[in-house]
Amino acid sequence: MQNQYELLKNEIKTFREEGHKFFNKELSVGDFKKISGGMGVYAQRGGEKFMIRLRTNSGLLPLNQLKLTESFLTDFNIEKLHITTRQAIQLHDLSIDDVCDIMEKALNNGLYTRGGGGNFPRNVSLSPMSGVEKNEAFDVTEFANAISKYLMERITTYHLPRKLKISMSSSSTDGGNSTINDLGFIAKVENGEAYFDMYIAGGLGNNPEISIPYGKKVKPEEILYYVEAMVNLFMAEGDYNNKAKARTRYIPKRMGREEFLAAFDKHLEEVKNSKDLTLNLKATLSKTQETYTHSLAETPSLLHQRQDGLYTLIIHPVNGQLYHQDFKNLVEFLENNKNVEARLSMNEDIYVRNLTEEQVKELNEIVKNYNGQTKIRQSVSCIGVPTCQLGIEQSQTLLKNILTYLSDNNIKEDKLPSVHISGCHNSCGRHQAADLGFVGGKKKVGDALEDVFDIYVGGLVKEGETALGEKVGTIIMRDIPTFIGELAKKLEKENMEYKEFIKNRENFLEVANKFFV
User: Fold this and answer.
1) Are 456 and 437 in contact, with CB atoms under 8 Å apart?
2) Is the domain defined by 302-367 classed in CATH 3.10.450?
3) Using CA atoms, how far apart are residues 435 and 130, in angstroms rounded to an integer?
4) With respect to CATH, is domain 376-515 assigned 3.30.450.40?
5) pLDDT tens digit at each of 517 positions of the chain
6) Nearest to 476 by CA among 457, 454, 509
7) What is the rounded distance in angstroms from the CA atom of residue 419 to the CA atom of residue 375?
8) DSSP label at 438?
9) Which string of DSSP letters, residue by residue, matches 369-401?
10) Which residues have a Cβ under 8 Å from the Cβ of 238 and sit 6 or more positions away?
11) Are 73 and 324 a contacting pair, CB within 8 Å?
């Protein structure tokens, strides 16, 4: 690892030089992106400021890394941080020297940015409730850590056609999104035996696909063989020439599903015959009690753990943007309550776990001014315009406008779902897997070129039920808050939860049709 540490430090030195070339217009946007993505850095729109993505392994937030991140906000005068939809933290509006200084300090403290973007294995996603979720099979945290360690030890050696996303979930609720990733593992138990169900070649974005069930039990200690087999299959069969069709989901489309699974088994056999990747880890089955004595009721932001009397509080700042002072207050709370831990989710949340009833009340006081308490206020939005180079629409502005409209008009919002907003078709807001999703674009309406969002309905992530949302229409951006308000009123009038309401699409279209363009 010492050699890799020196290699990564030298990469930062070279990257700093290339970053200055880009800033001085000596390097094109495309050429810089080829270099920067693999370093976990992207230029923002305009090319003068930069974003860095801190690769918080599977969303785990040990106290030392929280304090380190808070020091970055202080030392570099950063107003806020952004919690991503893949359990990482992004810092924005930085100079290239700030980015490289942060990268070096992070590396010195075991926090990586390498492979945070580009054609590399990305952060291994993990159910944020793993270890504390009722009815889970077993805690998969250490297995996710093992995959992350394995990938990071080799991160500078990978030459993949495109990004590779791996996920782990501790139960069929699929909190890690294993059924819509390139490679996903879901914990299972049968007759006292722990194993994983595995899913492969799924993903969101253009031409999205639900992952293919592998159909064979995977022993927990053997997961690295399957990871390596997937990497090798991707390199052997992935499209290096056409970026638009380079993700793993295009391989079974070309080969056919059965041929694809056979090819995977061939690579798996080769790995098992040539390497020893067996983990010295044992799955410990989780126990869920028949009855519990939690006194605080569950809400969209408060969950009961399988450990009796303990709670998880979900902290969700609007748009996943957590301001410096609010983050500092949270870090101080965690420092003063050593029994408590924090994890990032796939929905721009922070899950604070192992709270007692008194700690719940204390933390609620700390976060009450910004924490989303209803599903609609736990909505998800990518960064979008004006920050993202690729963004088409202002996704964060849209979400703010929706929430402001609901508040200003005193509209009851309890039955509304979370909405997921992407500023373009890359699906960084995961609109295709949401109850209600929006994706930005432009459309000529009459004589005017309008800012619009396509609407997707009925997406779901849950093992055995995962479904991609159906596009039902397009609405001008400025009309969407009114549409959401009308939807809220209809749900209240019918006294129906949204999921039940949309089972009959005509219900939804009755509200939406008058807004479509």
Assistant:
1) yes
2) no
3) 23
4) no
5) 458 889 999 999 999 999 999 999 999 999 999 999 999 999 999 999 999 999 999 999 999 999 999 999 999 999 999 999 999 999 999 999 999 999 999 999 999 999 999 999 999 999 999 999 999 999 999 999 999 999 999 999 999 999 999 999 999 999 999 999 999 999 999 999 999 999 999 999 999 999 999 999 999 999 999 999 999 999 999 999 999 999 999 999 999 999 999 999 999 999 999 999 999 999 999 999 999 999 999 999 999 999 999 999 999 999 999 999 999 999 999 999 999 999 999 999 999 999 999 999 999 999 999 999 999 999 999 999 989 988 999 999 999 999 999 999 999 999 999 999 999 999 999 999 999 999 999 999 999 999 999 999 999 999 999 999 999 999 999 999 999 999 999 999 999 999 999 999 999 999 999 999 9
6) 454
7) 8
8) E
9) TT---SSGGG-EE---TTT-SS--S-HHHHHHH
10) 160, 161, 162, 246, 247, 248, 250, 251
11) yes
Query: How far is Cα 21 from Cα 117, in angstroms, rounded to an integer?
Result: 20
Mode of pairing for the β-strands spanning 380-381 and 419-422: parallel
Is 461 in contact with 431 (CB distance < 8 Å)? no
Q: Is the dihedral of CA 142, 148, 154, 158 positive or negative?
A: positive
Q: Which two tokens stand for residue 271?
A: 């790995």
Contact criterion met (CB below 8 Å) for 341 and 353: yes
Instruction: Render 454-478 in DSSP notation, one character per residue.
Output: EEEE--B-STTT-BPPEEEEEEEGG
CATH code for the structural domain at 125-274: 3.30.413.10
Question: CA distances (Å), 410 to each of 403, 404, 406, 488, 493, in order?
Answer: 11, 10, 6, 11, 15
**What angle (nearest 5°) sits at the alpha carbon of residue 234, between those of residues 233 and 239?**
130
pTM over 0.85: yes
Domain spans, the chain: 2-108, 125-274, 302-367, 376-515
CB 315 within 8 A of CB 81: no
> Do the two domains 2-108 and 376-515 of this chain adopt the same fold?
no
Among 3.90.480.20, 3.40.109.10, 3.30.565.10, 3.50.30.30, what is the CATH number of 2-108? 3.90.480.20
Would you call 514 helix, strand, or coil by DSSP?
Answer: helix
Q: Are 419 and 481 in contact (CB under 8 A)?
A: no
